[in-house]
Amino acid sequence: MEDGMIDVGDRPNIGVLGKYNIVDGLENKFNVCFVENRTHAATDWQAANPLMRCLPNFMLQLTFIIMFTRVFMIILKPIRQPRFVSEVLAGVVLGPSLLTREAWIATYVHPFEGALLLETMGSLGVTFYMFLVGLEMDLTPIRKMGKTASCVAIAGIILPGCVGMILYQLVRNERPDAPKEGGFFWAIALTVTSFSDLARILSKLKLMSTDLGKMAMTSAVLTDFVSWILLVATVAIVNGHGNFLRIIPTLIFMVICWFVIRPIIFWMIKRINAGREESSMEVQYNEKHVGFILTGVLLCGLVTELCGVHPMFGAFMFGLMIPSSEVGIKIMDKIEDFVVGILLPPVFLVAGLRTNVAFIAAGFRYSLVATVMVVASLIKILSTLLVCLYSKCSFRDSLALGVLMNTKGVIAIIVLHEGRNVKGFDQQTYTWMVIAMLIMTGLVGPVVSFTHKSARHLKHYHRMNLERSKPDTELRVLACLHSSRNLAGLINLLHLSNGTRKSPIVVFAVYLVELTGRASAMLIFHDKSNMNDIAGCGNSSRERLEAEHIVHAFESLQNDNRAIAVYPLTAVSPFSTMHEDVRNFAIDKNVAVILLPFHKKPNGIGGWVDESLEHKKVSQHLLANAPCSIAILVDRGLTRHLPLDFEHDSIREIRVAMLFFEGADDREALAYAWRMAGNPGVALTVVRFVPGKDMLETVVDDAEAGAEAEAEANFNDDPAA
To answer: Start and end of every Cation/H(+) antiporter C-terminal domain (predicted)?
Structure first.
């Protein structure tokens, strides 16, 4: 026989169904065979009907699934639905639940002959997607996670897993012939929290930098990692027909990857970086390095396939072994769009073809179906809610975290696929779980958006500023930097701000870096121990070195002045949303004042030139939506008058002038100047301008006046300034 034929030997023929030959197989299974004749017509087409060929048919299917996904994304965007929901809905609509019920669509769009290529491409897409997931995942937070995050992750694994087993047992009570292995896959599917999809949801909702977002991400990493271990073990044991020894080859491969291959990869990357540093060149990874990594993905996938599990497990392990560096970003730039946009959609089309909503309750009581789907959808929310409430978290944050931890995504669909492939599900129970996944993920955006928005509104009533601050309370300052040019002036200003034991200064020093090189916008706040994460967001080593320099300078400030506590951070986000990230962080940390550098720099001849139009826009947006007081630092010599080493150099007296006119802005500036006056090295002079008939003539330096006027004009006379 030709391409689609299977060698069935002397097995008995059961019958013929249309053009398909049904042949008895092994273990109560049967094989469906078909003869694929290569026919040609005397036309411009090589085949009589090109849609009946596998590759053109696959292209047609791919076009449909991408088109329907885009349509659903547009429709569902107002209610904040993630891409995953649109992709699953597109697959369900194209499947037997709706469109494939039409005979011509089943014949020309989804013929039986095209299933092999569709599933093969989907399997390849899953393999490379899981490599990208491993590339993005960082297991370091697991070692640093707090007690609450650990309890949330553990409860999210144990309770949903047990409930999943119980729910499947209820199904087996109604249908005893249901495969017993399905309970394990139900348990894993309810346990999973899609790390990558959760990161994108948090990024869109601007929650990545909040305590809620950090706890959700940390818990999701541990939950995902444990879920993958359980899935690998389950698939290996099921494929081995209950033989637990079948998992040993996979475990050996994982050990070799982590303790042999991983150090080799680290050594190779370190050697490349060292060679570039010796030649004073920035690290550039070429096509040879990318090709080597992609070949490693396929080889690891092949090894795990030989071990009896899906190739995606090998690809995932290989992704985990690659450090967050320029090579990882180079790979993301090369293949992420292709994998997510072309190779992954067939996975959702296969899921849709395996889902049939029309028979959702056939042979079952409607009450059982409703109970299973509702409990499955809510159990993880409930488990997280209980743990958070026990840990004294607010109900609002507990509910939001529970919904976030219930985020399902591509990984959950992969778990269901594996369960279906090993006959752990039938079509009906598979449909139940797909619908439950839609409900779980569909709730995330609206619920978290509502609670987050409400929390923001509540915090606006407790807006912080200097004028309202009590004298003996800490001063919280958010100091922003786009580069190290304003670093010295900013540090000197903070040193002069008179931090004392009774009124310490808490400084959140944020280095603002533009996000580049990634298709999905991500905001990452991290401390000095995670400097490599900057490179992990598509930025060059220059930003990483500059971040290290900024962190070191602020640490020196903290060491020199015990009344100043510094938390150096790096915010990596696109310029279009950078102001929102800074604003949200200021609200979450109850910051009283935000220090921004002036967007212009001296030109050396007494004038100013624009350093970056994007920096100006960030400042303007912050001024227009100020969550607290905002100060613009125009450094015209503070750096030259103060030493950077306060411990070994004496500070000469600094004379500070405050020009007071009237209004809330001047009162806020006066409050800051009055705080500075408490510093023994500061002499404050306040000049108050009052309206009257007798004009007081004041001699003002022309250059200073021009700079003030130009700075005011550049910010469009914004009243928030």
So the answer is: 655-688
